[in-house]
Amino acid sequence: MRVVLNVIWLIFGGLWLALGYVLAGIICCILIITIPFGIASFRIASYALWPFGRTTVPNPDAGVPSLLGNVIWIVFAGWWLALGHIITGIAQCLTIIGIPLGIANFKLIPISLLPLGYRIVSTDRPFADARAYAE
């Protein structure tokens, strides 16, 4: 079922949302100081391209730099990416088939606003904790 939802997602909004993240990542990689934002944007682009079967978990190693980076991200890129998720999610919820896609869009809003300090993990693992992936 995940593959079917991911293919429908890709066709009806996932591709253009992922392209928005890629564009944000390219813009962020222009300056050396904003490369971490670009890397986070590319990571979220892959998540926005194929979201079903994956989730986000907090990274226990993230600290104050992630918090400060998230504030900068919200001001320069996060708000318009979140707006894209809101508009796409509302449009997808207008149909019965699109409701799961709209809900997935709404679940992507927090990671689009605060990308630093989170990891994207597979939901196949019963305990999707960031410490389990350190081994």
UniProtKB/TrEMBL annotation:
<dbReference type="InterPro" id="IPR005185">
    <property type="entry name" value="YccF"/>
</dbReference>
<keyword id="KW-0472">Membrane</keyword>
<feature type="transmembrane region" description="Helical">
    <location>
        <begin position="71"/>
        <end position="104"/>
    </location>
</feature>
<protein>
    <submittedName>
        <fullName>YccF domain-containing protein</fullName>
    </submittedName>
</protein>
<feature type="domain" description="Inner membrane component">
    <location>
        <begin position="4"/>
        <end position="54"/>
    </location>
</feature>
<dbReference type="InterPro" id="IPR031308">
    <property type="entry name" value="UCP028777"/>
</dbReference>
<feature type="transmembrane region" description="Helical">
    <location>
        <begin position="7"/>
        <end position="40"/>
    </location>
</feature>
<keyword id="KW-1133">Transmembrane helix</keyword>
<dbReference type="InterPro" id="IPR052937">
    <property type="entry name" value="Inner_membrane_protein"/>
</dbReference>
<dbReference type="GO" id="GO:0005886">
    <property type="term" value="C:plasma membrane"/>
</dbReference>
<feature type="domain" description="Inner membrane component">
    <location>
        <begin position="68"/>
        <end position="117"/>
    </location>
</feature>
<dbReference type="Pfam" id="PF03733">
    <property type="entry name" value="YccF"/>
</dbReference>
<keyword id="KW-0812">Transmembrane</keyword>
